[in-house]
């Protein structure tokens, strides 16, 4: 602007000078701009203002009044100050009074005013300008690095797919400006990975990944802000590769080990069903325990059939037609047996094996009620026209071929034939009963029981009742005097063929074939006899969801679980367990099979769940060691053997059992409490050598010894068998009461017995305990001169008189001169023997005077003190020795004649035999007394000094 052709500055000076001359000294206020804009970089103190800070005063050039002395700032906590650089020109500068931080405050706004210097040096009458607004912006410095929001990133992807974004990582910066606070770039630090990342942090895969090749990847990612400052700490990203979702069970083990005695063991504690997020309306799971290869279909008790029947409370009187081969049951010895699996006695018939049951074993009193039972494993019969396969047959032994009753298989049908005799009415009667069942030819073990309540016949297969689908009537059989033959494995054809032979052979396996006449078996007993000791179980039933339904088959080998919710079914499956209640289970594997069906809304089946297979491995149990101990020899006088009760060979018997514990060390066994550890099922006392002679000896066990125990016994000339599942202590008590009696012990040299005991029908057997019973002789026979070498047991004082049996007959002959020395030595030895004999005779007489009660016992026939004659010098009185030898020989002949007379007596009962023994003993006493009075050679012991 120009005034009168003069510039504005000259005009201002002129105006202010003329005003100062013509008026007061400080007439005008300072003047500044109305607003300022400034910029300051954080952590700096200089502010760049636009426009510059300049104050003007019209009083210039008047000193003081026209000069600028200060700038004052008005604002709350504004960290700035204004400084006058030139008072005359009014120039100033704006500075930061304290550090400025953009991250704390990006902008400041405050008021500034200029002050002149007043009218004089004292600053009086100063004036201030109007208020101007100052806006200051704080410029940012890139002082912070990017930081990731998460310490670790995780993601998963399905194999075989390309993803646009698997996951997104995110970093941030504390700087205040957009330039430095924004993240402009991300970068994958790990080299060679099949992944890429964009500027927004999205990670994607660059190729299709395979679960089989690599299941997971670990990569490192960093970030940069827009000022290209890198993150101080990189971040890890974990990416899992999942297989393509396949519906099925996950989290299960293919093998589960089961330790015997541990109760119930969960099979699938962490198993769950993967349905790939499909909407389901129901799940049904079938768990099957396959144990067909274990014994007779599963782990059952392998006690003998009679023991099992007693355990299950079956009525007595059944006949076992397939017992274990033994001297008393030898008709099964020719059959093929398979007892290698847990001692479960099984007979295999290959179409050419059969056995005739002895007549004394065959039940003769079959009435309108009886039961036939057996375990059977059978497959389809070979050939297009299958023949009958006979399990059990009772037919004519000779002349004719009539079948009275039989049980056979024909074309996978079980047929029971029962031909009754004519009684009163000559009419058709039920004769054949047919059952057509899958079990007959499925090559698995099943328990068959036929209950006959004529005319009704009922079949039980594994405890389930089946009525016959076909009943055939026939004429009764006319009575005849032809004997019948009971056979197993085929049918006997004894008439119309030459020679008689077996026919209709059975092909399969049998076990426990029994007939019980007079009674039928109850459902409870049948279920007990075929019950498995192993199976499936469910723990914590109360913890299952309400919508869960489950069902077991009778053998608990099949479990069905149903539910509407997958989680509930998963929880139920974790409770499924395996249990084996046998104390000594059969070791080995059991197969598991799980079949699953899934239902969807409105559809029958929407997902296909693969079947699952696993095994339960039953570990080897701690096996017991059964040990029989006691005295191995029993020496008793003849009187004890002839006594009514005889002697007890096993009176000092002890049976113990030890088990090697799993946690034992150094090879030591830790003894268990045997009476509570387990039971025995039989003990056999067998006669070694010749069988017992019923005319002079017996091995007995009174029935009272078995009372109160679960024991039975059978007796024969071969020994005694005690059987039944009972405790070791009860077996000890029974064996200690076994008595051996011999009412003609004169000829007894020794009688030997062997005792063995068993658990689980021979699976665990004891040691063989041998017992020898012998007669107590008072001295050894004098057949040799040197009696000093005799067994010490014959040198002890006894209560019976002594007698020398025999002398060598050649002693009466003249000795040759060359043997003179030998004869002298022999005579000296004989003198010593005589002295010892005199002493023992004297001791015996003294004991006889003390023991008058012993007179009731019969003195031994081998020794008689009254007939003893001893000569000090036998060479001087050889005639006396010859007479003594003659007496001894006559007594020996008398005993032999008596034994021959006794052997001719037969057919006596035990009571008659005892009575005859008493008579014989009395006669023996009379004969001995007569011989004593006839010609006894007496020794006067009173004249002998010793």
Automatic annotation (TrEMBL):
**Primary localisation category:** other
Against SUPFAM superfamilies, the record matches this protein to: Cadherin-like, Concanavalin A-like lectins/glucanases
PROSITE patterns, per database record: CADHERIN_2
Q: Which GO terms describe its molecular function?
A: calcium ion binding
Listed SMART domains: CA
Q: Where is the Cadherin domain?
A: 32-148, 149-268
Alphabetically sorted, this entry's keywords are:
Calcium, Cell adhesion, Cell membrane, Cell projection, Endoplasmic reticulum, Glycoprotein, Golgi apparatus, Membrane, Postsynaptic cell membrane, Repeat, Signal, Synapse, Transmembrane, Transmembrane helix
Q: Where is the signal peptide?
A: 1-22
Asked whether the keyword Cell division is assigned, the reply is no
Q: Where in this protein does the record put region Disordered?
A: 882-946
Q: Which Pfam families match?
A: Cadherin (PF00028), CLSTN_C (PF19699)
User: Locations of Basic and acidic residues compositional bias?
Assistant: 926-939
Per the record, where are the segments of Acidic residues compositional bias? 893-904, 914-925
Q: Where in the cell is it found?
A: Cell projection, Dendrite; Endoplasmic reticulum membrane; Golgi apparatus membrane; Postsynaptic cell membrane
Name a GO CC annotation attached to this entry: dendrite
User: What biological processes does GO assign it?
Assistant: homophilic cell adhesion via plasma membrane adhesion molecules; positive regulation of synapse assembly; positive regulation of synaptic transmission
Membrane topology per the entry is: Single-pass type I membrane protein
- Where does the source fall among the domains of life? Eukaryota
Q: Which InterPro entries match?
A: Cadherin-like_dom, Cadherin-like_sf, CLSTN_C, ConA-like_dom_sf
Bilayer-spanning residue ranges: 818-841
- Similarity field: Belongs to the calsyntenin family.
This one is known as: Calsyntenin-2
